[in-house]
Amino acid sequence: MEKIRCGWCEKDDVYRKYHDEEWGKPVYDDETIFEFLILESFQAGLSWYTILTKRENFRKAFDDFDYKKIASYSDEKIEELMQDTGIIRNRLKILATVTNAQKFQEIQKEFGSFSKYIWGFVEGKPIDNRPKTLKDVPATTEISDTLSKDLKKRGFKFMGSTVVYAHMQATGMMNDHVEDCYLRK
Which InterPro entries does the record match to this protein (predicted)? Predict the structure, then answer.
């Protein structure tokens, strides 16, 4: 019997694998949370599929998403990234990645971990929205609005409410698997 999944992931095996193995599963380690923050910020204005198919290129280009290294990228490294055809070569997004890595570490110092900070917005556990269909899945919520505003106040870039909500879905802070998705059962 074929698995029933959320409709958005049926484009191809890349999407199905991401849906089945990652999307909506709670992530509490700072390294993976940072990886998704970076990928989501590059997605702004683009499709998630575009980012997903370039994920390994991003991993290689951005030192395995090592926020400590990224926080101290030089102008030379930024120019090198601007020449990398395997990633999205948007200077503002690349510069934002460096800034976000620096701000990420500031939050770690303040809260003990970034995970503790971000999961605090949902009281430490996933919110299950129980959508019946894809039409019932919001692009933003009050929580993503609040988190986005807080991140921006702390100096993060490319962290609008839609990007933040997508991040919350990806890292399992929000469970938006539709009612008949096999992962819901």
Answer: Adenine_glyco, DNA-3mA_glycosylase, DNA_glycosylase, Tag
DSSP 105: H
Query: Per DSSP, which regions of 125-181 are E strands?
Result: 127-128, 174-175
Pick the catalytic residue: 15, 23, 40, 117? 40
40 is a catalytic site residue: yes
Both tokens of 92, joined, read 């503002």
Q: What is the pLDDT along the chain (185 residues), one digit of tens a residue?
A: 789 999 999 989 999 999 999 999 999 999 999 999 999 999 988 999 999 999 999 999 999 999 999 999 999 999 999 999 999 999 999 999 999 999 999 999 999 999 999 999 999 999 999 999 999 999 999 999 999 999 999 999 999 999 999 999 999 999 999 999 999 86
Q: Which of 8, 18, 28, 49 is catalytic?
A: 18
Domain region containing 118: 26-184
Active site residue 18: yes
Q: Are 175 and 128 in contact (CB under 8 A)?
A: yes
Catalytic residue among 48, 117, 119, 165: 48
Annotated catalytic, 48? yes
Tokens of 26: 């709670």
In a domain, 95, yes or no: yes
